Amino acid sequence: MKNSDGARQQGGIAAVAVLGAFIGCINPFAPGLDNSPAVSSCDPTTIEGFFRCFQNSYTFRDTLIYGQLLDPNFIFVYFDYDLSIDVSWGRDDDMRRTHQLFQNVQKLDLVWNNIISSTTDSNSVNVVRGFNLTVTFNPTDVLGASGYANLTLTRDRATDPWKIIRWRDESNF
Predict the structure, then answer these.
(1) Structural domain of residue 3, as residue ranges?
(2) Which end of the chain has fewer beta carbons closer than 10 Å to its terminal beta carbon, N or C?
(3) Based on the number of CB atoms within 10 Å of its own CB, is 88 exposed (0-12), middle (13-18) or buried (19 or more)?
(4) Do 12 and 55 belong to one domain?
(5) Are residues 24 and 52 in the same domain?
(6) Local structure of 119: helix, strand or coil
(7) Distance CA 20, CA 13 (A)
(8) pLDDT tens readout for residues 18-53
(9) Are 78 and 10 in a shared domain?
(10) What is the chain's Cα-based Rg?
């Protein structure tokens, strides 16, 4: 009986050693890569999905997402109250400025509010939507902006994603 108990004990020790070696190779703080396909939380083929993508681009400060939302003929317009004129720029300038913004802040919190107006035809929609934007440069330097984004979105086919062709900023920023 002693021998069978000893053999059982050695077998148990061996099993624990093998299990310990196996578990010892798994680091819970460095899990393996997840090779499953990514599921996007936004779908720019719908108006609401487009706004979710826009919000994600700001939240994650991701110019790749942001750039996919801009038409090649994109124009940004705002009113300069100091000069009393409209100021505008194209896609390349907007991408540079947005990249600088994303690089120079710690956090951007964009909240889309109600759609104030919306006009649609087959491949174009004009949406005026309220927003609140909190820009955190550091814990002691936080700015807030609010107002309306007056966006003209376009696409060639109903299955294509919406893209901004014109954005008129109507905010206090």
Answers:
(1) 1-31
(2) N
(3) middle
(4) no
(5) no
(6) strand
(7) 10
(8) 444 445 556 566 656 555 544 457 999 999 999 999
(9) no
(10) 26
Residue 121 sits in the same domain as residue 158: yes
Report, as ranges of residue numbers, the positions in the chain whose pLDDT lies below 70. Answer: 1-40
Distance in angstroms (rounded) separating the CA atoms of residues 31 and 114: 41
- The CA distance from 164 to 25, in Å, is 49
- CATH number where 83 lies: 3.10.450.50
Count of residues making up the chain: 173
Q: Mention every residue, 6+ apart, whose C-beta is less than 8 A from residue 156.
A: 123
Q: Is 139 in a helix, a strand, or coil? A: coil
Q: Is 144 helix (H, G, I), strand (E, B) or coil?
A: strand
Q: Report how far residue 152's alpha carbon sits from residue 124's, in angstroms, rounded to the nearest whole number.
A: 7
pTM, rounded to two decimals: 0.76
The Cβ-side half-sphere exposure at 43, using a 13 Å CA radius, reads 6
For residues 56 and 90, state if they share a domain.
yes
Distance CA 131, CA 149 (A): 7
